[in-house]
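HUMAN: Spend a minute on the protein record below and explain its fold to me.
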Amino acid sequence: MNKGAHCNQFYSYLYSAVDSNPLSIYVMHPFWNFVVKFLPTWLAPNLITFTGFMFLVLNFLMLAFYDFDFNASSAGHQHVPSWVWVAAGIFNFLAYTLDGVDGKQARRTNSSTPLGELFDHGLDSWACVFFVATVYSIFGRGESGVGVVTLYYILWVVLFSFILSHWEKYNTGILFLPWGYDISQVTISLVYLVTAAVGVETWYQPVIFHLLYRDLFTFMIIGELCLITQLLNMGYRNNTLKHSSLYEGLLPFLSPFLLFVLSTIWVIYSPSNILELQPRIFYLMVGTAFANVTCKLIVCQMSNTRCQPLSILLLPMTAVVLLAITRVFTNETLLLYLWTAAVVLAHIHYGVSVVKQLSNHFSIFAFSLKKPNSD
């Protein structure tokens, strides 16, 4: 992140978003307004945001321990303990709640800054993969579950659904919050708790005729993308585009599309069928790389600067994919683990660097309401 190109532009930034979801307006916002009153006024909004994100990471790690390869929910395998599903349901709803009250806490304590929005949406982009991978453990990859390749494409539907909203804001200046987010968070939190009560065997049974619960899960994800597309159309009918050329308007899609192409080439031409061997790690790699690309779009969108055509992360990834599919690096699993570790570390480094730069620029602490020059 270049200070001269981005930081100064944040001073003129104003957050503009539209939330038309009835569940959010009539149920969740009143609930969040009630919850935020119990938070101490010294509690920094970014700390609330980060805590909520860590609940999703904890869910991911917890299910990775009990169901690393997504086989635990299949018939004939040792299932995930019921208490894990209870914890997952509670943690997921806590993460959703904290994500809803962080902004309200910022306004309540008069501490709203562009850093807060960037921190919130940046962590949301990374949370997509943790959310999807944890939900996958409910159905698993068995006969009545979802194949790992199918889940890979479902993950990409979720990722593109997320970036669509921010792409629209890049072009119009207004963020239209997707309906599917609130509905999915409440639904999945309940599904975790129901799974704890009735067991994963319940999801083996068809809902009606031959329609399985896994099919409803898939339809819900695809339906969310269709709904977001409709909201995007509404947004473009009612807002003036900031970028006059089609090339400039579509520029933010180039890196995510290339990431999709590269990862899909690896999936299709993998000599050892890497997605079948290591689905959880592959999803983590893809989701983290996507979050890195998306965060850079969010920075450009908020600072009103031009989105770069190509993310630098895609260059070494191209080399990694070539090493894998040409069998130059024979241990494909080791290559995936090394590359995933590199992507995660690179993304954390980028996030920490951006937060530090903006904190210094605005003379604030990221996780405290105290001022740097105060005693």
Observations:
- The first helix runs from residue 3 to 6.
- The longest strand covers residues 206-208.
- The beta strands are 17-18, 175-176, 206-208, 211-212.
